[in-house]
## 1
Amino acid sequence: MVQRRVNRWVGVFLLVVGVGGFVLSFPPSLLLGVQMALLAVAGALFVAAGVTDRVRWSLLAGVGNVALGSSLVVSGITTLDGAETSDYFYAVAVGVGGLTLAAIGVLYVVEHDAFDTA
């Protein structure tokens, strides 16, 4: 139950950051818009994972992790515009972190019995 409450509050934070970033940068560039939309989707899925019992919470949290990881990958891609050596390092580090987070999300979806709390 604690993890579901944490998911709810993390989701609220991500939703506020995603929508707020989109509004503050309106009209955003294509990649920034995609990144903010993915953050907002991840936030909505985390909130849903924390409040609903109609759908398995680990499924919603897993798809939210995939969306959050994808937003990190998009963040790494946006830094490559006119990149220097340090930008490549940052892009690779953020890309690996985002892909790792997405893989954890896939594990939430596939092996939900290990995460399910009664």
Note: Residues 85-110 form the longest helix (26 residues).
## 2
Amino acid sequence: MTSEHKDKRVARLILLISGGILIYWIYRLIVVLVRWLGHFKFQAAGGWSALGNFCWANLSIILVVYVIICLQIAGVVEFRFRRNFLKAFFLGLLMTPPIMVIYMKKTKRYEIPVINDK
């Protein structure tokens, strides 16, 4: 077995372990959210206002997470579609990241042909 095959196996093992941990975290987050939202009676206006107050109190955390998501999506757009990172990032901030990806995918990129005169 070559070192390349060993590296691929180790990378797959690390990917499986991190994927398992991520799935567990998402499961625990969903359980916590369901329990937390179970305490509210959403028919009353008080439940919705409590949720709004929670979002307003943690607005800085929500904005930081949104910016991090936009940075990650802009990096994906840069590598996958060969686009400008800053343009993708600012489009992601103004529009939501999924709409930005669709926009960047649909717009055609015009490249200047390179002529080699030797």
Note: Helices lie at 3-38, 45-57, 59-81, 85-94, 97-106.
